[in-house]
Fold N(4)-bis(aminopropyl)spermidine synthase C-terminal domain-containing protein.
Amino acid sequence: MQIPVLIGCGLIDILNKCYEDFLKIDLETEIGHLLKHKQAEKIVGIWNLWSRISFPRFETYVWQCVNRANRLQEVIDITGTVHTAINLLYVLSHHGLCQVSQNGDIVFSKKLKNDEVAVDCANAVIPERIKNKREHGQFQATWSTSVKRANMIFEQIPPWKHIFFCGDDDLTSLALGQMSSSACNISVGDIDRDLISFIKDYSGRHGLQIEAFEFDVKYEAPDQYKKKYDVFHCDPLDHGQGIDLWLQRAQEVLKGEPGDAIYLNISADRLGQREHYLFKHLHEMGFDLEEKYKNFSSYQVAEEPFLNTEKLNEEMNKINIGYDTIKDLYIHTDLYVFIRKSVRPIFLPQEFMEIRRKI
Ligand SMILES: C[S@@+](CC[C@H](N)C(=O)[O-])C[C@H]1O[C@@H](n2cnc3c(N)ncnc32)[C@H](O)[C@@H]1O
């Protein structure tokens, strides 16, 4: 596997400069006509409070464009408006991070894009798996699920961000580590000591930069992990108390900034009406649902550690299906992606003037 050449401090410095320029141009484009207003200072204050694009959002736009955009239309699809897309491309090209040709083709600089890494995404190697442990509620997803999750995170999250896998018997961290090599900052915390040793050992043998440590969601996160991460990934125990504990830890270890992300694997069908309260709770924490992928993860029924084989056999006999077919049965969970949109606990902001983005 090639080590990616990208993404050192140098790149972050350039992105910071791009962002500074972008903020100026964005403000001028959107509310330039109001800057001569006698209340201009107040108007800029409102703009900064409610409409300014944060640095994490800006970085995410850039990274998603690098992965998905070859034309202006695709940049508009990512940023949401024509003007934001044009301004983004303007600052990136001005700082040598992309080239836009007359016919509308966009080529990103090698500093940002790394073809070898992208190619490897399809080929993450399956590590030897560990046995599910009942006492920790483990029920591993299939390896192709872990690869799919890792691919998604790799495409959506800039690799210089810090990702925390809170519980990871599915070994999604190893799939991501293999894809991104040393580019991603990956940590894994899990209650299972054997799993942590396995992840440490596997990462060490394969040169993956993954930090792994024992971590129990029942207790407050130790200080050194607080406010450290941009992304929190989990596949929690799906009873109410389980989800609650995982989300409490997410609140502690995430940076607390707009753009923080939670990747939550859970089954809406099993949650039932509690799904509504899950959303409400996350909403109060400042998070909005960005995406929901139905049936994203698969788990082989035969591997469920709590499976009562005798009972299931009886049930299957009722509909004349032989027990052997169980090896081909899977259950699924949905993948929810929540993004922190607000860090201000205010309901329905009212200002003396309403400002909205252009199309
Ligand atoms: C909870 S299990 C997956 C459960 C499964 N998806 C379900 O809902 O039945 C996911 C990971 O969380 C870890 N885990 C279980 N209890 C934990 C705890 N108290 N603190 C941290 N990790 C825990 C497990 O070891 C495993 O790696």
In short: The domain at 116-340 is CATH 3.40.50.150 (Rossmann fold).
